[in-house]
Design goal:
- This protein is 42% helix and 14% strand.
- By secondary structure, the chain is α/β, with parallel strands linked by helices.
- The protein has a single domain, classed as Aldolase class I (TIM Barrel, Alpha-Beta Barrel), CATH 3.20.20.
- An eight-stranded parallel beta barrel has the order 4-5-6-7-8-9-10-11, surrounded by seven helices.
- Helix 3 runs parallel beside helix 4, helix 10 packs parallel to helix 14 and helix 11 crosses helix 13.
Length: 336
């Protein structure tokens, strides 16, 4: 996390090409809306969010992480948005770290809380983590590229059988989550066939774990994998070809980015690195101001584009720029 939070690394990440510019939303000149009439309340995993937004998986497992989780949970509670922990898989071997995760529910007693685990965690251990966090759902992160680049990373990616068991036997809904490299259509179709219901697409464009892990290597010899992923927009196009419920995260920096994701069918939108940067670099009040402004602007933009409720997001007209349109066309002809 320290590498990710370094100012130099953060700005290097945010200066990369903005992949959300590959999609434009067509604004109605006469939207016939009122900002005060906009109600973006969204039901997700039996919780009602004030807006379709959640703070995505970031931290846990240390005193510093406990403080971060406490502050992020306070923000989630104040604005009634969802929150996911960082990987709680550490609790299988280090149960003494439980307080850095349980603090999320303590500070957010009535909101949407999602636990995060790796795909090797057993049903028994996963249910224990759910109990510790009083979680409403579990994200299972699938992170092949990160593991390959990580010096001590796994080389066993046979995950599907354990994912089936988690899906079938966990006490709460399961979300299959990428970590910044996006989802291809074949995998999404496989998950749908296997009975999974929800994915977090987490496309490229945000925190790049291939770069972060490669930074830790003395030879930096995996640099060629830094742009291996599918973008969040490409992943959304893929998911729209299925009947899965999907959440969108990965590189979302502005309310307009979020609106683009929602217009492509995302049930909710996750932000992480940009909020963590505000919190760690500028403090709690600046992070609070950032989040308050983000939510206010999302409601205002919804009115600008003729939307007063979530069911209307899909009615926003869109223009796909050449690269993204080429991807859409090839998807229909070659990738199915």
């Amino acid at each position: 996390m320290s590498i990710c939070l370094s100012l130099k690394f953060f700005y290097k990440e945010t200066q990369e090409q903005d992949k959300f510019k590959e999609l434009s939303l067509i604004r109605p000149t006469l939207p016939e809306t009122k900002v005060n009439n906009v109600n973006l309340e969204t039901d997700l995993f039996n919780r009602t969010l004030s807006v379709p937004l959640y703070i995505n998986a970031m931290s846990g497992g240390s005193n510093r992480s406990a403080k971060i989780n406490q502050q992020l949970a306070q923000l989630a509670n104040e604005f009634n948005i969802g929150i996911a922990s960082g990987s709680a898989s550490i609790l299988v071997k280090e149960p003494e770290q439980e307080s850095s995760f349980s603090i999320i529910r303590q500070e957010n007693p009535n909101g949407l809380v999602m636990a995060n685990i790796n795909p090797f965690v057993s049903v028994e251990d996963a249910n224990h983590i759910v109990s510790v966090m009083q979680a409403d759902a579990v994200q299972v992160h699938v992170n092949v590229v990160q593991e390959i680049v990580m010096p001590e990373g796994d080389r066993d990616f046979v995950w599907l059988e354990n994912l089936r068991q988690l899906q079938g036997d966990l006490s709460v809904p399961v979300i299959i989550k990428e970590v910044g490299f996006g989802f291809d259509l074949a995998t999404l179709s496989l998950l749908e066939k296997e009975g999974f219901k929800t994915v977090d697409l987490s496309g490229s464009g945000g925190t790049n774990f291939a770069k972060i892990e490669n930074f830790r290597r003395s030879e930096h010899d995996y640099s060629y994998l830094s742009d291996i992923g599918l973008s969040t927009l490409q992943s959304l196009i893929n998911a729209n070809e299925t009947n899965l419920n999907y959440l969108a995260s990965g590189g979302i920096k502005t309310p307009l980015d979020a609106l683009k994701c929602l217009s492509l069918g995302a049930k909710a939108v996750g932000i992480s690195g940009i909020l963590l940067h505000q919190l760690e670099r500028h403090g709690y009040e600046e992070a609070r101001h950032f989040l308050q402004t983000f939510i206010t602007h999302l409601k205002e933009l919804s009115a600008v584009y003729g939307v007063e409720s979530p069911v209307q997001f899909s009615t926003i007209n869109k223009y796909y720029h050449l690269e993204l349109e080429n991807y859409r066309q090839q998807l229909r002809h070659d990738f199915r």
